[in-house]
Specification:
Chain lengths: 499, 418
């Protein structure tokens, strides 16, 4: 049986960053994920915001890790070549009565260590965000709030971890814990047993279930679901991309726009993504879906109504996709705890919002807790914090692009025309250190099929590229692993000609 | 990189672009045709059903045959296939990329946009439910079956009575799959009547008007959809909800002209057609920028697309030669009962031979008249036995209307019951 120093269960943003943090040391680390790709749970379906600390209660772990994580995030993204943009946020008061709430948020954020918070009114507010409803009275401006692509962050962190020696096991579902006396010593999975000195529970929506396997009963998650619209990006500008000339058009909304929060959530917001889309949502309703909740029609209607109060000119006809995410809600605070009984178990549980922001800090804290318990941390001399940026043809100058295509013509063949992704980039992703083996995995990395045609034009081509590169039949190619096959089989004519 | 020079560059090698390139070349222009796919023809090679060419060639051809006619005519024309245009600049500079061509800069005197359209997706109509494999547009399924030889599923539900959806209902049935039914939100057919008769009726595939899909089921692969009747406001009536087991949902819920390049060049757009505003010579509001085919408005027949393309090509060649864009235009506006009209502008003095094409707002199942009016006075009319939104109709401008427009005013188009 294989023996590891640390096994991390769950390759969401927390698990992946934790794996990367551990790869700084000479340790045998296994990152286990039940899905066909990393970032397949709560980490993939959220707003992608690097939050201020105006929401969490002072003194809570949420407040601490959110503040620390927010400070770490720009450098982490730089090292991992993941786009991070400090777009700033506006929490909008629609009446003078709501101004009191803004002052409360300002005070809380300041206590938690946020810098630069201010309340902006009238002309200044219009100037910051011209699209905002005229009914907006004032807003809390948080200039340090950023947006990050949570999928690229998780994938890049996992890739960097693998580059630095971590073993990644995809399609591997943990089915139980191996216990010896008062200690957790490994996991049973669908692909056999693995032993370890420490087990890290980073299972997001399932983190309370894993705790119960270990006999710990002090966390009960009640997942909350949230529905989102994705609006098309603005048209690209004319001319080629060159240094100093981005082809990306201007978004309608530049800041993250929050309504006044409710006790249950930060409300339904408008988020400009790093890719230029606008994200509208989420709702926040209790659900029994721990993962992959279905999109709810009533939820979408609520989102539409709420966001239009904030920005009248939002055009929902620009919608290109809808999705829903599940949040591991229900805990009063994050649960970050190295257990004594049973020993050998580190729980990173109940990580809901602002979990993405907090993840880099939680990863560091995880390592600290393990070291404190006696895990020997000798530096990995070969550790390289940099995960090089994959080639993106749209980001090259005309000369660079011409040179690249001359070297490898596959970078000249555009497969996804809405998002302008070449065959070369797809092949790179399929063979990267965290291989993209499904349609969804390619979509997360490259936005193949994430644009306005939603894969209508590229699907037949992408299926063939995946089949060719993976050495499988097109009928084995899946959307997201397991039984999610894309095609049923050959047509009778094609089957006949094969015989 | 040395820029490629040409008189006319045509973006898109489907029926519109092929006809434009042929016409521009015939008019003496040095023409360059750019096509993103490895073969010319656009969507035609996957349309293996008959029904093409009746208008232009006087015989019934399949899509690939119709395409071949045009490809043969275009044989001598300079073209770059497997080459996608990624950006355009005013004036005109075109940037394109392809495995064989690398990154190219093309300078042209005039430009014909013939990028066609894309299909409306699940996301665009925001269907609730899970997000499994087995949901795709009808055109994607058509390509998979007819070009790649793949069956996308075994038991299909089709949402939308667009032409591709009905044609695929028949195709899939013939390939041994089960098509449970076609569900249409509207109280009337979206596509051509002849497709309803030949594809659905003849193959006993039920059509459910006034129905929609309200939820998608299945975690990994589609297991079924909830279908629901809708009321007069097209809102689903929950009491009528019904679960229909299926492994694939095909969407045939409309086509959207592909106009990112058009907008980038600053051409005025028509919010109803989704395409640029064009004049009777298929010139957009940007001098020297022409557009034709489904990029301007979604057509029913490829023959009409080719005809529009030929006008655009001929006029683009004329512009490249003498640079005259026109000086004055009359506006053409949709009046009562008319949803959209193309062209939206007429260059003055107006050409009496101009064909005005339009779609009606709702079905008129009785004798009716199309009227052209200038300053309130009827200047042309055409009698129709019926008018349906799914079937584009047209009438000629005529001498009287052309004369009336000389004296100022705009042209309005309306449909009135006889």
């Amino acid at each position: 049986m294989e023996e590891y120093d640390v096994i991390i269960v769950g390759a969401g943003v927390v698990g992946a960053l934790c794996a990367r943090e551990l790869s700084r040391y000479r340790l045998r680390v296994l990152l286990v994920e039940k899905a066909a790709d990393v970032c397949s749970g709560a980490s993939k379906a959220n707003s992608g915001i690097v939050h201020a600390t105006t929401s969490p209660r002072p003194g809570s772990l949420k407040a601490r890790y959110c503040a620390q994580g927010g400070r770490l995030m720009p450098a982490v993204c730089r090292e991992l070549s993941v786009p991070f943009e400090r777009v700033g946020s506006l929490t909008v008061a629609m009446s003078h009565r709501e101004m009191r709430v803004l002052r409360g948020l300002l005070a809380r954020g300041t206590t938690n260590g946020d810098e630069g918070l201010e309340i902006v009114e009238a002309e200044r507010l219009r100037c910051l965000e011209p699209a905002l409803s005229e009914a907006a009275v004032a807003a809390l401006y948080a200039p340090n709030v950023g947006v990050v692509n949570p999928m690229l962050l998780t994938i890049a962190a996992a890739e960097n971890a693998v580059m630095n020696g971590v073993t990644l096991a995809l399609n591997t579902e943990v089915t139980g814990l191996l216990v010896e006396g008062e200690r957790i010593v490994g996991v049973a999975t669908g692909c056999g047993e693995y032993r370890c000195r420490y087990l890290v529970n980073a299972t997001g929506a399932h983190s309370d279930e894993v705790m119960r396997w270990a006999g710990l009963d002090d966390l009960r998650l009640r997942p909350r679901r949230g529905d989102y619209f994705v609006l098309d990006r603005p048209d690209r500008r004319p001319g080629p991309s060159e240094p100093g000339h981005s082809r990306e058009g201007d978004p309608l909304v530049r800041h993250v726009i929050f309504p006044i929060p409710t006790p249950a959530s930060k409300g339904i917001l408008i988020t400009p993504t790093t890719e230029g889309n606008l994200l509208l949502g989420p709702t926040s309703t209790v659900s029994h879906w721990r993962e992959h909740p279905p999109v709810d029609g009533d939820g979408l209607a609520t989102v539409e109504e709420q966001v239009k109060r904030l920005v009248h000119s939002l055009d929902l006809r620009r919608c290109i996709a809808v999705f829903a995410g599940s949040r591991p809600s229900g805990a009063r605070d994050f649960l970050v705890r190295l257990e004594q009984r049973p020993a050998g178990l580190l729980n990173l549980a109940g990580i809901e919002s602002p979990g993405l922001t907090a993840a880099p800090a939680i990863a560091k804290e995880a390592v600290r807790l393990l070291a404190e318990d006696g895990l020997n941390l000798s530096p990995n001399e070969e550790f390289d914090p940099v995960r090089p940026a994959p080639v993106r043809v749209t980001e090259l100058s005309p000369e660079e692009r011409a040179g690249l295509v001359a070297e490898d013509p596959a970078y000249g063949r555009i497969i996804c025309r809405c998002e302008e992704v070449s065959e070369g980039e797809i092949v790179d992703a399929i063979h990267s250190s965290v291989p993209a083996t499904t349609l969804d995995a390619l979509k997360k990395r490259l936005r193949v099929g994430a644009g306005r045609c939603q894969g209508g034009f590229d699907l037949p081509l992408v299926v063939e590229i995946l089949a060719r590169e993976l050495g499988v039949s097109p009928y084995e190619v899946t959307k997201s692993g397991s039984t999610s096959v894309v095609l049923a089989g050959p047509t009778p004519a094609a089957a006949g000609s094969e015989e | 990189m040395t820029p490629i020079q040409c008189d006319v560059a045509v973006i898109g090698g489907g029926p519109a672009g092929l006809a434009a390139a042929v016409a521009a070349t015939e008019a003496g222009a040095d023409t360059l045709l750019l096509e993103r796919h490895v073969e010319l023809g656009g969507v035609l090679p996957q349309c293996i059903h008959p029904g093409f060419g009746l208008k232009l060639f006087g015989e019934e051809l399949t899509g690939p045959e119709y395409s071949q006619r045009w490809v043969s005519q275009a044989a001598g024309i300079r073209r770059l296939t497997d080459t996608m245009v990624v950006s355009v600049s005013p004036g005109f500079t075109v940037w394109a990329t392809g495995p064989a061509s690398g990154l190219l800069e093309v300078r042209s005197g005039s430009l014909v946009l013939a990028m066609g359209c894309r299909e409306r997706t699940r996301g665009a109509i925001a269907i609730a439910g899970t997000r499994p494999a087995g949901v795709m547009t009808a055109g994607t399924a058509q390509r998979l079956v007819n070009v790649h030889g793949h069956m996308p599923g075994k038991r299909f539900v089709i949402l939308g009575s667009g032409d591709i959806g009905m044609i695929m209902a028949r195709r899939l049935t013939w390939e041994g799959a089960e098509v449970v039914g076609v569900y249409e939100l509207l109280p009337h057919l979206a596509g051509l009547r002849r497709n309803y008769v030949q594809c659905l009726q003849d193959n006993d595939i039920p059509l459910h008007l006034g129905h929609t899909v309200t939820e998608i089921h299945g975690d990994r692969r589609l297991t079924g959809v909830t279908v629901c009747g809708v009321d007069q406001a097209m809102c689903p009536m929950p009491a009528t909800a019904q679960l229909v087991p299926a492994d694939t949902l095909l969407l045939s819920v409309g086509l959207i002209p592909e106009n990112e390049l058009t907008r980038a060049l600053g051409a005025e757009m028509d919010a109803v057609t989704g395409g640029p505003v064009v004049d009777d010579r298929m010139q957009t509001t940007v001098p020297g920028l022409f557009a034709a085919g489904n990029v301007v408005q979604v057509h029913d027949l490829a023959d009409d697309v080719s005809l529009a393309g030929a006008v655009a090509g001929r006029e683009a060649a004329a512009y490249a030669r003498d640079g005259t864009a026109g000086a004055a235009w009359a506006r053409v506006t949709p009046g009562s009962g008319v949803r959209s009209v193309v062209p939206q502008r007429l260059r003055l003095p107006a050409d009496p031979a101009t064909e005005i094409t339009l779609r009606v707002r709702r079905p008129v199942e009785q004798r009716c008249h199309l009227l052209l009016t200038v300053r309130g006075a009827t200047v042309a009319r055409r009698r129709l036995d019926y008018a349906r939104p799914g079937e584009m109709v047209s009438l000629s401008l005529g001498a009287q209307a052309a004369q009336a427009l000389r004296e100022g005013g705009d042209l309005a188009v309306e449909v009135v019951e006889a």
